[in-house]
Amino acid sequence: MLRRLQDDGLQERPEGHADPDRHGRPVAGEPPTAAEAVARLDELTRRLRRECPWDREQDERSIVPHTVGEAYELAAAAHSGDDAKLLDELGDVLFQVHFLALLLEERGHGSLAEVAEHIHAKLVRRHPHIFGEVEVDGAGEVLRNWDQIKKGEPGREPGIFGDVPENLPGPLYALKTQRRAASTGFDFDHVPYDGVTGELEELEAAGSREERFHEVGDVLFAAVNVARKLKVDPELALRAASERFQERVEAASEIAGRDGHEWDALDTEAQLGYYARARIVLGK
């Protein structure tokens, strides 16, 4: 843990490492250690909280939407395979952690050090095959043990689905729900493709608007279940599919433009033809 020297968050620096300039950047010497870099970020976060009008106005409710947005950007960067972008987005999320921990500290209900110690203790507790005498046979058993240990921890909501956050995006909410059910043994031992086809048949047979609403939900839930069994994140997969669709439509519009046509003026059959050409050009 970082050893704080003063209440304003200044940190001790080992000999041989230069102090930062007025912008908080190291001016000379060896590359900073992880502890030094985290200490500078901690100091910067505190300064922003003291001196920036926007940062002073924030609380956890106003910051969390930004935290969620940064988490999605991080997920997109990880999925893209762009390591430079991943590094950048990890920094944004790290700043969110620092800022939220500072808000806890201001209220006397925690600190960055306590956040780190809490997750350290949690990870040790949930890995008894590393830090205890438990033996496991593969990753699946690790996950089952994790779920069982989690159920017995204090502060957990009662019930099978008690700790599933209701404000998650739909695909993640469905995924969490299915995982909780599976942790009780209620799960398929195969990939349930037939569940999707069965729900599609019921959707096709639905007559009323209410029935269609119900069946569309079942189709999507069944698709998430297939993704779960295939170990595919449905949220990321759906976003990737949306991005592919955007790229194809934009490419189709460009091809149509080169042929002298306005995309919006084409009928659906012509648009589909250009869309098929775009898929061939893009190779996906």
Structure description:
- With 284 residues, this protein is mainly α.
- It has a domain at 236-282.
- It is 65% helix and 0% strand.
- The protein contains twelve helices and no strands.
- The longest helix has 25 residues, at 234-258.
- Residues 1-18 have low confidence and may be disordered.
Topology of this protein?
Layout: H1 34-51, H2 53-57, H3 60-80, H4 83-106, H5 112-125, H6 128-131, H7 139-151, H8 170-182, H9 193-205, H10 209-229, H11 234-258, H12 268-282
Helix pairs in contact: 1-4, 3-4, 8-10, 9-10, 11-12
- Mean pLDDT across the residues is 89
Radius of gyration in whole Å, from Cα? 25 Å
- Helix/sheet category: mainly alpha
Largest sheet: none
Task: List SSEs in N-to-C order.
Answer: HHHHHHHHHHHH
Taking pLDDT < 50 over at least 5 consecutive residues as the criterion, the unreliable ranges are 1-18
State the end-to-end distance. Answer: 48 Å
Fraction of residues in helices?
55-70%
**What fraction of residues sit in β-strands?**
under 5%
